[in-house]
Amino acid sequence: MEAKAETWCDRDNHKLFEQYVDFNEWLDSDDAAAVREANNIGGISVPSKALYAGDKEAYDQVFQEYRETRRNEALSERYLCEQFSDDHWFQRNLDRFNQLVGRLADGDVVPFIGAGLSVAGGFPSWEDHLRTQGRTAGIDPARTETLLASGHYETAIEEIETIRGREVFIQEIRDVFSRTGRITDTTLLITELFPDTVITTNYDRLIEQAFDTGAENSFQIINGMGALEEAATDRVTIIKLHGDIKAPASCILSKNQYDKCYGAGDTDMTLPIPKLLEYYYRNSSLLFLGCSLNSDRTVQVFRAIKSAIAQRDGDIVIPQHFPIEQAPETEEDLRNRNAYLLGLGVTGIWFEKGQFASVEGTLRLARNELRYRGAIPRVTPAWRSASGADSLHPVTKQELGNE
Hints:
By secondary structure, the chain is of the alpha/beta class. Helix content is about 50%, strand content about 10%. The chain folds into 3 domains: about 10-75, no CATH class; about 90-125 and about 185-245 and about 255-400, TPP-binding domain (Rossmann fold, 3-Layer(aba) Sandwich); about 125-180, no CATH class. The protein contains 21 helices and 7 strands. The termini are far apart. Residues about 380-395 and about 395-403 have low confidence and may be disordered.
């Protein structure tokens, strides 16, 4: 039998070369002309491959400089060091980012997507939408602003529905959130990093657009109100906690509906949505994107879970959860916000106020770091059947007491 000829791929670990695709593209671009000249690869058709094969030590040195520069840019080194006098908070960012990448490499991260991510896709923030709703209903703008400033969003919804009726409110939801959104680099990165499960409180279909490959049944929608629905093992599961604009009448909108789904007064952890959130809080690392994490119902659920764990389970270790969010502008406020989030079991990763492109930059950095490690997100998490057989969503009827 004739021996198989050795290829460049075999001899020089070409497969490893492909793990550095972003660096290779940069090294071959106009931006790296000076670097190529310094390494005598300026006139070569594919400089990155030539340097990798011809002088791996030089390739590694240039790569490490590139990697550190991109890391520092994405994690707001310059801003954090200048704003807070030294590198203390940047080091926190760096450590926490590395912890996040470790969880991503293990396939244990589930994104939790709020309205902030849809803004870049052409949709209003929830506050701005309620302002528009108030105008349609004829409510005094000063009254609406007072309610929004105090975080009483559900009260604002209740007053709008009381004055103009639920039909008017639902039609306004339909008018705004049924539009075709603009797919952003951030949403595309989400599809790369999280090919299994996504949780969102958004009514729009931006995430569905991003996951729509054109193939039949490429994803499955689970409405939060139907948390017992069986999760498919061969598709992306998109959990829409508060409903889908395709069925606006079933969206959770009013205070009465929130009370029904989360509990009136104290959070009712026996209800499907809190139970669903508890499962993911205890078994996955949640990555909050575009979420305020202030006083909404989901935060109340996480606070109740954290409190119950402390009282009942003692020192049980829960997975780390991460938000990528704006840093407060004073160190005292940053310390307070950091402590507040950690009280919820959430580890903050910060960026400069108003620089929302940093979210995309941080996700891109995470994606590249996974490539460098040769790691990719697992398509099949532990709770699904390894054999591909049918399996129930992690929140079963028995667990919810609905046998």
